[in-house]
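Subject: for your reference before the review

Hello V.,

The reviewers asked for a structural picture of the protein, and I figured it would be easier to keep everything in one thread rather than splitting it across files. Below is the amino acid sequence we used in the manuscript, unchanged from the supplementary table.
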Amino acid sequence: MAGCGYSPVPSSSPERTACAAAAVLAAAALLAGCGSGGQTSTATSLAATTAAGTTTATATAAEPAAKTVEIAVANGTVDGGIVRVSVDRGTAVVLVVHADVSDEVHVHGYDLHGDVTPSQPARISFTADVPGRFEVELESRGLQIAQLEVGA
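And here is what came back from the structure prediction:
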């Protein structure tokens, strides 16, 4: 930007405000390129607004990653026994159930369902917003595969 170098322009001029906004956006672009080696941690959103000679910048962090729970069922039993998982209220949860049979996975208390087949795992995503203990089962077999505990 040609007008963003040193000049005797008063600090409240529109040109100065535009330069400040450009600097904020350039800094945001540079920071967006910095990360944790390709891993997703938090996303940052930067906005610059110019109105009547003011510039503001705001940053917001993304939601934390979901708690993914992998469950495997073979020969009528859960690999490693019933999976017990505890999460804080408000946590995003993803249940991924692999089975060697076709059935319906049911999350009691949340009344969530997902179909599982030997070639297609069930994937149930939800926010754990109801406190308590909840059974997860292969519905038609009556086989409990997990217990979800949601803190208050």
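For the response letter, the relevant points are probably these. Residues 6-11, 16-52, 54-60 have pLDDT under 50 and may be disordered. Helices lie at 14-33.

Happy to draft the paragraph if you're swamped.

O.
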